[in-house]
Amino acid sequence: MLRQLEDMTVKIMRPIGAVGIVASAALVLAACGSQPGSTNSSTPTSGAATAATGTANVVCGGKTPLSGEGSTAQKTAMDVFAQQYTKACPGQVVNYNATGSGAGVKQFNAKQVDFGGSDSALSGADVDAANARCGGNPAWNLPLVVGPVAIAYKLDGVSSLTLNGEVAAKIFNGQIKTWNDPALTAINPGVNLPSKPIQVFSRSDDSGTTDNFQHYLAASSKGAWTQGTGKAFKGGTGNGAQGSNGVATGIRAADGAIGYVESSYVTNGLTAAKLDSGSGGVELSPANVGKALDAAVFAHPGSNDLAMDLDKIYAANTPGAYPLLLATYEIVCSKGYDADTAKAVKAFLTVSATTAQQPIADKGFVPLPQSLQDKVLTAINAIS
Amino acid sequence: MTRNRIKVRPGDRIFKNLSVGAGVIVVALIGLIGLFLLVQAIPALRANNVNFLTSRIWETSDPTHLQFGILDLLLVTISTSLLALIIAMPISLGIALFLTQYAPRQLARPFSYVIDLLAAVPSIIFGLWGILVLAPRLSGVAEWLNRNLGFIPIFANGNVYPNFSGTIFTAGVVLAVMLFPIITSLSREVFERTPTPQVEGALALGATRWEVIRTTVLPFGKAGYIGASMLGLGRALGETIALAIILFIPRGKNFDYSLFDGGATFASKIAANYSEFNNPTSAGAYIASGLVLFVLTFAVNFAARSIIGDKKGA
Q1: Chain B CA closest to residue A200
Q2: B139/A contact by beta carbon, under 8 A
Q3: Domains in chain B and their CATH numbers?
Q4: Is the predicted ipTM greater than 0.90, yes or no?
Q5: Which of A274, B95, B159, B221 could serve as B190's disulfide partner, Cβ 3.0–4.6 Å?
Q6: Shortest CB distance from B251 goes to which of A238, A250, A257?
Q7: Nearest partner of B165 among B267, B272, B266, B260, judged by Cα
Q8: Beta-carbon neighbour count of residue A296 at 10 Å?
Q9: How many degrees, rounded to 5, is the angle at CA A260 between CA A256 and CA A262?
Q10: pTM more than 0.90
């Protein structure tokens, strides 16, 4: 009996022993894994903070980890920002939680995070709530991540297509149904448009991209877009697909399809349409988006709150400017942070607005043009 | 005396309490989930301006003027799941019979591992495979069906026409593949348990392989097979991300009983929109649809259990 019990104990113990070995092995591995990282971050690389766009005078230090939450659209950019920040300020870390713009604003106002990320500037009751959170000081919207939205299409035999706001609106609300519609052929002289039906693709999930796109249609279509704006697509035609990737896949699979996606999704057979705001078709390129940003109009001119009046950009007729863009903001307090947090927020935003701008260009965003960057840096320096 | 000592052993008591606790936790958890769904859904249902069960509108962006009805979601959920079941049931039956009755032992083992491995593939992979790889190849079949059998309503032009990729048809086929391992592994277990005397009896009476299966294996395993299919149906009803990726959402058109329609199921609708739940009332609309799915799945599982239970009793 006792022997048996002993046997059993041995049997039971054996796997536990094995687990122990595995666990300790994992610990050793983890320790090995963390070593290169820690040596990396302790190497003084702040010298690398020579700017690709503008120069960074980063005063490192303050609170770590700094916390942010909000927009999913700027998640990829924020990853780069965080990486560049740690590179410029060894030992300093930013945690950004991409939970959606609404959640970001809510958490910022509730003092749960140090800054919020949002696809749209603060508005309505959120402004007062944000000011209260900042101890009665105004909260600022700083546009740090700008990305163009492409009207992407797939149409065999057509490698160049020009649209204007009015025609785009009529395609996306179903008034124009075929590719050789007179409205399309009129603005595409010399392009042989087939008589195929137009298959419209939109986002089936609620999205800031859809909101911006519908704002563009409303602002630039001379009244042809009456469906309104919002995060859900209201055109009432075509098909919705999940996420930008779903939209791109949908367009790719169908000859004669068109939809709107962030520019990084325009690959493998998709083409971005040129947009004509009245001075000829303009191609989607960082330089052309930069021109639109140079002419940006701000909601509070003269203030450091850099909320942009995108509707003005969308409706403007700036020669050579590509107007369809999406700006996402970091929402920060102008004053009201404790000294430690203010220092870290300023350092992080400075890195994000300067050194980190060039790296995000590879991810489908557009580096801030000089004019806007100067304004953003002025605002960051004014934070106290 | 030994018995008495065993009875008071703390190990026994602890183990019994632990298992009872585990059982209670499961029941309590389900009850609490149901309660949570109900509590969250009620404010939205009160604010709803259309009939929740018969409307096809889903407009929840304005919390002061909610309009949401689940009819389309319900129909799309049921059609994708039924199509999946219609495809998966006979094929899974074939696989299970092959593995238990025809395949040599050396082949049956690795083969069943492969089938079970299918269950370990994450559903997002199935979704991506479905829309990127399968859909383009399947659209030829779909177009052919539509062209030649279009007069039958279920093969008529769908509401995502002329697109044949993001349809209920594609979704159903992908779901069917996801059901194979569930239905197969359960059916296999049951078929393997066919009493040997019965099989030998049939063989002794001069039955061929097929006759043995027909007269002993199938009648014996029928309850288990149907139960397995019902559990698979429950899985299909709740499948989320794969369908959210595959199905296109028709704009301004309702489900019209064609396999080539697009649409959203309960689960895929919630998955597509959960990241933007900004106010509790709009979120409540989705939760209310989740509640319907909860009830539906519960009903299907209940039906499955009662089928298995009935046959076992008989």
Answers
A1: B251
A2: yes
A3: 47-313 (1.10.3720.10)
A4: no
A5: B221
A6: A238
A7: B260
A8: 21
A9: 130
A10: no
